[in-house]
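User: Could you go from structure to sequence for me? I need the amino acid at each position, not a summary. Structure tokens:
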């Protein structure tokens, strides 16, 4: 009788849960049933540990099975919190996070407070990621102060289907610096399919490895100018020495409509070894 083969090595801890499966969002726009089937089937893959939660809109929550950890994007702001909490409780859903954008550009601080009040009234215990649109102005920083005071997290939108609306590296560096200055964890969304900054048709796109390296640079005392330079780096070999574990203490994950593109890049850069 041949010996039982040893179990495969677990997926490297530094990269576990890095990618949240946002297949139903642009530009992927997968059908919800197909995306859920693919998410659940992925448990059999050797790289399953790379993927964290499934990202769904609050309007899709009724179709998500109880066994799937789900990050819920609120489509109507703080007013949707109570409904999400009620449905999650009835269905026994595993809420991995709540993602909500500030909708009142004239009073972002007040909007953050309303979000916090709704979360507390609903007695939700999942992490709350608040997206504050716009550059890091004094008003943006005040809203970030309120996010920190409420013990919530930030959500940074790093891409857009309109390339003219992708934030530049100086803006991203300022956002990350503000998060670290307040010791607020953050996740990213949109456009981080690839590890290294590149130039797709229509404009530049940030790389998730660049963001990790910029986070580490700032945490180690670097300036926002230095972080912006790291975000502009287009040579993957210049980024592979980043202390991923240290950076991910703050940069927790990013949503992507593709989970295989990030994996392919990690393999090609030698950061993950395919068995």
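Assistant: Here is the amino acid at each position, in order:
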């Amino acid at each position: 009788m041949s010996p039982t083969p040893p179990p495969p090595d677990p997926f490297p801890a530094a990269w576990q849960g890095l990618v949240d499966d946002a297949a139903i969002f642009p530009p992927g726009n997968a059908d919800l049933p197909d995306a859920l089937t693919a998410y659940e089937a992925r448990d059999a893959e050797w790289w399953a540990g790379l993927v964290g939660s499934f990202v769904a809109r609050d309007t899709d929550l009724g179709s998500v099975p109880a066994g799937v950890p789900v990050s819920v994007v609120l489509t109507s702001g703080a007013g949707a919190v109570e409904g999400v909490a009620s449905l999650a409780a009835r269905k026994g859903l595993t809420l991995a996070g709540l993602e909500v954008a500030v909708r009142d550009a004239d009073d972002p601080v007040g909007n953050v407070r309303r979000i916090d009040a709704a979360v507390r009234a609903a007695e939700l215990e999942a992490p709350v990621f608040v997206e504050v649109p716009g550059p890091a102005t004094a008003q943006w920083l005040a809203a970030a102060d309120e996010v920190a005071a409420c013990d919530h997290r930030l959500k940074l939108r790093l891409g857009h289907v309109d390339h003219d609306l992708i934030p530049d590296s100086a803006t991203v560096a300022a956002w990350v610096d503000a998060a670290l200055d307040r010791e607020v964890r953050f996740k990213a969304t949109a456009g981080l399919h690839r590890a290294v900054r590149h130039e797709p048709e229509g404009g530049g796109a940030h790389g998730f490895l660049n963001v990790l390296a910029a986070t580490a640079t700032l945490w180690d005392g670097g300036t926002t100018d230095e972080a912006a330079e790291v975000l502009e780096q287009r040579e993957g070999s210049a980024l592979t020495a980043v202390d991923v574990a240290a950076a991910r203490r703050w940069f927790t994950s990013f949503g992507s409509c593709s989970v295989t593109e990030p994996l392919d890049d990690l393999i090609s850069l030698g950061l993950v070894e395919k068995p």
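One structural detail worth keeping in mind: The first strand starts at residue 19 and ends at 21.
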